[in-house]
Specification:
0% strand; mainly alpha
């Protein structure tokens, strides 16, 4: 095996969505503008503070979203749509339960 061939395979434990480009590609099209804005803000903050903390945090957050999206794209889209409806109307999701009821069911 040549060095070039082994480079393309990548190490077996390589983290999924290991670059901003890979994260962005895994998102739903409707989430890309939010990712772009958050990424650009984190880059500006990194330049101003000379710290990569905000950038790492932003990418970790979007990496989680990318994983959820890829695990169930249709389910993730439904969740986004329901969240948008709830924010727009103030009404809880259909078949949703009140926080008090959920706590009681969980015994907390």
């Amino acid at each position: 095996m040549t060095a070039a061939a082994s480079h393309h395979d990548g190490p077996p434990d390589r983290e999924e969505f290991d670059s901003p480009r890979a994260i962005r590609a895994a998102l739903l099209p409707e989430e890309v503008p939010s990712f772009d804005a958050a990424y650009q803000q984190a880059l500006r903050e990194a330049a101003e503070t000379l710290s990569l903390e905000a950038l790492h945090s932003t990418l970790a957050n979007w990496r989680r979203i990318a994983r959820m999206t890829q695990a169930d794209p249709a389910g993730h889209r439904r969740m986004l749509q329901q969240a948008e409806r709830t924010l727009r109307t103030g009404q809880p999701p259909e078949n949703g339960i009140e926080w008090k009821q959920l706590r009681a069911e969980l015994g907390v």
